[in-house]
Amino acid sequence: KGSDSPTIINAFQLIGMSSFLDLSGFFEL
Amino acid sequence: MGCFHSTAAREFSGHENPVKLASETAFSVSEVEALFELFKRISSSVVDDGLINKEEFQLALFQNRKKENLFANRIFDLFDVKRKGVIDFGDFVRSLNVFHPNASLEDKTDFSFRLYDMDCTGFIERQEVKQMLIALLCESEMKLADDTIEMILDQTFNDADVDRDGKIDKTEWSDFVIKNPSLLKIMTLPYLRDITTTFPSFVFNSEVDEIAT
């Protein structure tokens, strides 16, 4: 049986979810 | 190359010439002129001085002037190329250019490296990543146990910090984003493809004869 070790998300994937890193706010009138 | 009538000087007085900016970026002259409409709107939202200050930047992005945030501060600092505490039109266009779908992977990788190198040491260090992670968790009101955060950091540095010196250098970052292209998702704004339809009013101010471009 393969080990079911959980995949750990990397920190930058989490950080990239910040709404403060989303510049599309400039274009939403 | 568009010929830029002298009468346009009035419209862009004190700002960089859109034909020159277009020649340096992925934008067409019309797109630069459309960005000028956006720039005028943002730069006059608090103080009408033809420059974007941090409050105006945050108001434009988050519809909130006072929303102090680690990431927003960092992005503002990267747009404020001349370190004047305000963003002029040329820097605004050149910084946004990196987010254009056609901008190079190298430019996007470089910008994201500088974004995460919070202390400008030339390396992305573990403490900086932890600080950003905690800022993200606060923003999303998520709670993670300390040892979970440490486990995520261990895994991240295990994957990215190839020479095991406890920090991520530029080369390691480039290799890491090649293996994890989703990390550059934040570095592309599809809106920038349709900027002239988002800000059509540039047509009334345009003085550039696109036929010659």
Automatic annotation (TrEMBL), chain B:
A UniProt-annotated Pfam family: EF-hand_7
Signal peptide: none
The keyword Repeat is annotated on this UniProt entry: yes
GO terms classed as biological process: calcium-mediated signaling
GO MF: calcium ion binding; kinase binding
Intracellular or extracellular location(s): Membrane
Protein keywords: Calcium, Membrane, Metal-binding, Repeat
CC per GO annotation: membrane
InterPro entries: CNBL1-10 (IPR045198), EF-hand-dom_pair (IPR011992), EF_Hand_1_Ca_BS (IPR018247), EF_hand_dom (IPR002048)
Domain EF-hand per the UniProt entry, residue ranges: 67-102, 104-139, 148-183
Subunit-level organization: Homodimer. Interacts with CIPK.
Function comment: Acts as a calcium sensor. CBL proteins interact with CIPK serine-threonine protein kinases. Binding of a CBL protein to the regulatory NAF domain of a CIPK protein lead to the activation of the kinase in a calcium-dependent manner.
Homology family: Belongs to the calcineurin regulatory subunit family.
Protein name: Calcineurin B-like protein
Naturally occurring in which organism (per UniProt): Noccaea caerulescens
